[in-house]
Sequence to fold (132 residues):
Amino acid sequence: MPIISLSINDSLLEKLDNVLKYKGYSSRSEALRDFIRDIVVEAEWAKGTSEETIAVILVIYDKSVHREPLFSLEHNYDDIIHTLMHMHLDQVNCLEVFVVKGASMRIMEIIQKINQIKGVKQVKYVSTLAEV
Ligand code: NI
Fold:
């Protein structure tokens, strides 16, 4: 593994060490590798060209509206949707959790389509690459 050196001022280093301690990192190298992975993953996602990506998508929607658009979307993308979970949140809202694996372009497509469905109140996702 190549070794790189880094110049950083005292004040920023002190802040960094505090964050690392708070987050439970055992070394600066471990933390910086994690940060670098995050930057790489974000850039790959932004390009939309990654073939092997994973995302967890959370959807909160009003259960009183017609659910057919959400169900047909789930069937249309069943080749990349690996897990689906449904939870009744309260009298009004339901939560749908999608675990998807596939090309980032198609995952972004699902997220855009979910956003367009009537009754969907919130869509959040966490994404990464299948190999980092
Ligand atoms: Ni429900």
Remarks:
- The chain is about 40% helix and 30% strand.
- The pocket of nickel (II) ion is lined by residues 63, 86, 88, 94 (CB under 6 Å).
- The longest strand covers residues 53-62.
